């Protein structure tokens, strides 16, 4: 590699952040206690014996999901439950054909195995979940009805969201004493709908990696190949949902943090339009930043499950009654569109970083199937992507990393590699004045209007694009956010979906033309030179489908047409 | 008066803004031409002879609206048309009982008289409106149907919004050459709905006065008493709609700019929740500022007309198809609530500036009628109003007035008194860093959540409050925005409505307890010492009704119950 990530850092002086002595003395003991608590949550009756050390399995590019099936690590009943879409489980529970306790036992078992392989959890409390499931079963028995549409559905939660009576730290050691009295609004809404909680999942320091390293519990790994990342920042969600240890996961996304882990780890994930799902109550370095707001959204192995989650959350949960920031747009029933009715603009390359061979192949194969099904395909060279990329990065960092510094320096914890990377976004530690931020907002609004006009003028329904220029990267080697963050700055609802295609080292090699390829930037060189076919074996090829702002319903409806009907991709039946 | 407004200014050095030589030489000639164009729009056949010089009438606290009726300055037919609610006019036109041309002739006539007395217009183009009306009549004749729900309705427009082929300057002389090729989205939507345009109305320099002085055409005056202000910043809209020269007006509001002119000038006005009505395409010093966004909304003499405007605009106009920033919440049909079903929290005093005698009396009388009708009244001492006031002022100015300075210094135009006042908001010319802006946003979000929790916890449907601590102020003597800007920072939809009560110098004197009243601030002293009963004779008493964020429909529905059913206030039949 001729280019190193350190060339991109705006500084190598992080003395304003790190304080090794303070960290070791005051904070590390608390971190060790936190790790012990996690260990204690790994119920022995649900564990399996690993087929080797994690180090060895990682080196071997081990595929734990395949191993799960091949070695029948669950009972037949547990496989049946955990390989049923959540919306069907909910129906079965509502009909009395299945109990919440049975359901949670199955998912709890699979979650703990998932954690053993992928290190997806930050907190495991399956016994608390079983107690809650029992209460729900009792309620059902007594009243003959469910408490809500997600009655008995095991839902995993990104740690960042406030959880009543538990620590919420958001990946910052300085917040390790932050035991919150109340659920954040989203956790509360889900609980009201009948969800069962049993695990809170991993996320990176600062929440600003498309990966997961942190000083609490370290990295999560990819359930399809342990040498690869499960993505991030909703890293643990990617791993646990992709592995089938959760019926539906809840992540958050300010630059790709739902879509990257979904795409990398083999599940689907929706980045909803802003303000449809509550983000109130939790830890974030982006508090008060509204140029490019974070969103919360679902991850699952079926697009219909994403839909059921959104519909239940919005129409029954009515989050606007609890959070003033949620807009009361009811979830509309939109039926699956006919392929022939669809016009899709395809981004083959965003002009910044060229997709790696498996992504280029996957996109091509998907487009061929869409065309065969009658979808009208339009090639789309997305405009102003460099401007969008630069602008969104400045938006993240234009407080001069003030908030991140406060949260990190509080404990003096050591900075992870990708923390340094994201602290170098925009102009790094240079604090902008408000007038500059307003100018960035004006650039953003023009971009949004121009993309809206593009869709209108060309009668395009959706944009299809890579989720990232590669399949899941190797751990701590994901640098480029351009494919995902474009849709954050545009605020377009975007589904990251699985194609049923996986990286194949035999097929997915750079073509002969690549030898002469002249990189358009050092970033592209850094990303592309990381791709060697052997390491990425078995990684899922995930893509993105983006629709019009606030028209999340149409995105999921078209997602079902594409995933279920055209690609016939069934994530419950992979091995 | 022991306190002067100059004490509040953060600086008396405006040399970075004003440049007399440049202004006189390069810009004043263009301004003079602009004034000539306005004069040319005053069609002689529609003018009346004034009963004295404007100076004399002002001194006499002349009531031009009363004069209009008493001297029958319009034909019977013109009175009939201009004193019919717009929603009924629309029905009559749709049935072929009335033509668009007849309608515009009547309103054009009344508008020109309104302008003669109040100086409400910046541009008058009644002949263009008549041509458009004729086209609409031709369309109707040919097709037997209307082009949309506002077919033939004369609508007045705040100048700030882009108008195809005309100058749009927003009150800044530096923009006097800005002839725009396209309508702003709202003008476009209204045109698509069938509206007829014929006048663009007055607004202050910077758009940041609750009044109207500017270097183009000067001050607008109150149609009920010429010594008083018509409010602002949608100043001309207040005057023309209050006088009946427009069926429905369109204003904008970032701190009270729809509600103040509506309340002062004797009409109703809705400040909708943000993002329901497009603000795209126009001039504003707040571009890119999204901590407290401006909104666009309607002003009219009937609450039902506000409703018809909102409903047509949203459900037929579908602004989200044109402006990516508009949220697709359809306008819901909400029926008028029964008084007995309502719980209203009343703000008698916001803790910052005590209401003047006519406002205190008006509020008391309204509350008595509400209670008599069965409405449950709760006294509400609003919390954190000082924090809200300080925060919203900082939000306006936290770019260190960068945008205002650019727009003003471009021409070096002389600064108006209330421009200096608003340039002193927050910390005046001190530019904040982004981190500080983010903290202000966090304060705002907590305020919003706390007020939401108050409404929830106390089962309160609406908040009733003064629109301002006084009735219409004397020109250029309006300083305090606290009653209106509270609902901008909270982003609650707020109706400014007329009560049918008017200031009476005999009744509305400070009570004996006022002699011992200890002012809580210099601002309060400045405002209260401006109130002498004689000057305010005949000024309308307008109040505010605020509801839940995004629930604009309920606010207007309850507004109809209060204004039409309980107060029986008919603005079409005042004299």
From TrEMBL, chains A, B:
The Amidase domain, residue ranges: 102-556
Name of this chain's protein: amidase
Species this protein is from: [Candida] railenensis
Active site, per annotation: 158 (charge relay system), 233 (charge relay system), 257 (acyl-ester intermediate)
Keywords linked to the UniProt accession: Hydrolase
Family, per entry: Belongs to the amidase family.
Catalysed transformations (reactions): a monocarboxylic acid amide + H2O = a monocarboxylate + NH4(+)
SUPFAM superfamilies per record: Amidase signature (AS) enzymes (SSF75304)
Secretion signal, residue range per the UniProt entry: none
Gene3D superfamilies, per the entry: Amidase signature (AS) domain (3.90.1300.10)
Presence of keyword Cell division: no
InterPro entries for the chain: Amidase_CS (IPR020556), Amidase_dom (IPR023631), AS_sf (IPR036928)
């Amino acid at each position: 590699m001729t280019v190193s990530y350190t060339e991109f850092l705006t500084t190598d002086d992080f003395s304003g952040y790190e304080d090794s002595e303070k960290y070791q003395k005051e904070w590390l003991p608390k971190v060790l206690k936190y790790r012990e608590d996690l260990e204690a949550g790994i119920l022995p009756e649900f564990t399996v014996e690993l087929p080797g050390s994690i180090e060895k399995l990682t080196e071997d590019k081990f595929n734990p999901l395949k191993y799960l099936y091949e070695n029948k690590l669950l009972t037949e009943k547990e496989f049946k439950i955990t390989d049923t879409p959540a919306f069907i489980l909910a129906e079965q529970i509502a009909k009395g054909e299945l109990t919440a306790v049975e359901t949670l036992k199955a998912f709890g078992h699979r979650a703990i195995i998932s954690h053993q392989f992928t290190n997806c959890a930050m907190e495991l409390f399956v016994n608390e979940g079983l107690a809650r499931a029992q209460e729900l079963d009792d309620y059902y028995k007594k009243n003959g009805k469910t408490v809500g549409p997600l009655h008995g559905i095991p839902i995993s939660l990104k740690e960042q969201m406030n959880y009543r009576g538990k620590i919420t730290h958001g990946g910052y050691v300085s917040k390790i004493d932050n035991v919150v009295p109340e659920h954040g609004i989203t956790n509360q809404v889900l609980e009201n709908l009948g969800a069962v909680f049993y695990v809170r999942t991993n996320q990176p320091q600062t929440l600003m990696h498309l990966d997961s390293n942190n000083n609490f519990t370290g990295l999560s790994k990819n359930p399809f190949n342990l040498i690869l990342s499960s993505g991030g920042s909703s890293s643990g969600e990617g791993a646990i949902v992709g592995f089938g240890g959760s019926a539906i996961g809840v992540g958050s996304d300010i630059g790709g943090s739902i879509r990257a882990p979904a795409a990398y780890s083999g599940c689907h994930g929706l980045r909803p339009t802003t303000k449809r799902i509550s983000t109130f109550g939790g830890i974030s370095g982006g508090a008060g930043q509204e140029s490019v707001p974070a969103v919360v959204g679902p991850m699952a192995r079926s697009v219909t499950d994403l839909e059921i989650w959104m519909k239940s959350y919005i129409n029954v949960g009515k989050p606007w009654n609890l959070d003033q920031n949620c807009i009361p747009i009811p979830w509309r029933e939109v039926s699956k569109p006919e392929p022939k009715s669809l016009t899709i603009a395809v981004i083959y390359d965003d002009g910044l970083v060229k997709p790696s061979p498996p992504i280029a192949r996957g996109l091509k194969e998907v487009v061929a199937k869409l065309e065969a099904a009658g979808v009208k395909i339009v090639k789309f060279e997305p405009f102003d992507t460099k401007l969008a990329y630069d602008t969104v990065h400045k938006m993240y960092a234009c407080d001069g990393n003030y908030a991140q510094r406060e949260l990190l320096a509080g404990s003096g914890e050591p900075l992870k590699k990708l923390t340094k990377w994201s602290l170098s976004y925009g102009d790094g530690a240079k604090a902008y004045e408000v007038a500059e931020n307003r100018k960035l907002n004006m650039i953003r609004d023009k971009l949004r209007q121009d993309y809206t006009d593009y869709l209108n003028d060309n009668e395009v329904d959706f944009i299809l694009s890579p989720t990232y220029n590669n399949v899941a990267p190797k751990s701590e080697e994901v640098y480029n956010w351009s494919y995902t963050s474009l849709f954050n700055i545009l605020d377009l609802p975007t589904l990251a979906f699985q194609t049923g295609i996986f990286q194949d080292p035999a097929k997915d090699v750079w073509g002969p033309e690549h030898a002469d390829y002249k990189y358009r930037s050092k970033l592209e060189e850094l990303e592309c030179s990381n791709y060697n076919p052997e390491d990425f074996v078995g990684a899922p090829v995930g893509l993105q489908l983006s629709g019009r702002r606030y028209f999340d319903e149409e995105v999921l409806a078209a997602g079902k047409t594409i995933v279920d009907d055209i690609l016939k991709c069934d994530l419950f039946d992979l091995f």
